[in-house]
Amino acid sequence: MTTTAPTAPTTGAGTVRRGPLRGLTWLMVRQHRATLYSVLALVVLGSAAILYLRAGMIDKLDAAGWPEKDLPASLQLGQRYTYLMMALGFLPVLLGVFVGAPLIASDQEQGTAQLVTTQSVARRRWLIAKLTLGYTLALVAGLVLSALFTWWWKPYRSVFPATWLEASVFDNTGPVLPAFCLFLTAVGITIGVLLRRVMLSMSVTLAFSVVANVVWGRFRNSFGTSHLLTYPLNGDLPARYQDVQQLDNWVGTADGTLYGWGTCAKATEAAQNACIKEKGIVNNVVEYLEYDQMNAMQWTGAGILLAATALLTVFVVWRVSRRPL
Known about the structure:
By secondary structure, the chain is an alpha+beta fold. It folds into two domains: about 25-225 and about 295-320; about 225-290, no CATH class. About 60% of the residues lie in helices and about 10% in strands. The chain contains ten helices and four strands. Strand 2 (about 245-255) and strand 3 (about 260) form a beta hairpin. Helix 5 (about 125-155) packs antiparallel against helix 7 (about 175-195). The longest helix is centred in the N-terminal third of the chain and has 32 residues, at about 35-65. The termini are far apart.
């Protein structure tokens, strides 16, 4: 009677990897592990900075008796909060330049893309694995830091050194930050596919990101429908509207004719009064957006960014599928 000895597990090149990281997924993580570790370190450091600065702000506010007492003018919360908000705003640019641009361009430049896709891996499957890795890194980084900063900012927005419509708040809270991270990552990937050179792609992505931020800033206010408030020329802004975000100011007549705010800014008070009387100016007119509109405006902006990301992704898939690598 013979017995069969149990076969020892094979090792080496024939080993079959088990678990979630195997096959092409393992290859992507292995190939881009430096980028993966760098992004994770950035998220950890950013999260730690938010938690640390939030605790420091709470200590200062508690010591000042806020919100029961008004904050004294001498209380300085420090420039660290401004620097943090600027750093968060730069996160999508970093992801576009250092994650998106080299993601495929490095394989095209070194020839590894052609090597991999001519072996046992289909080109589209390889591309989807690449895109999944890049977009996952961008989404996780954006979601974690946006969630933490929103959690910090909302209860203390009245004491922050920036209003809700400024880029340092609007673009770093809610869905906007992760959407912007995905968009600039997609931009970097697209530029890398087209230019096929890493350093050139990174430089062009950086330049595009700067332009994109300028354009985004010009259109941010248009994501919401502005309102007009009219009140007497010599009156005070009603208390209900003290917290609104003013977009523009005019002076107006009783029949609704508007003039620029400085129309009757003359050298003397007599000349100013004569100008006001001549033109029939009786009202102040303010164009404004309310804080209650912020959520809808952010989702509108995020929707535009996500739609642009989807279009760029479709183009990349089409381009890589039809053109030689």
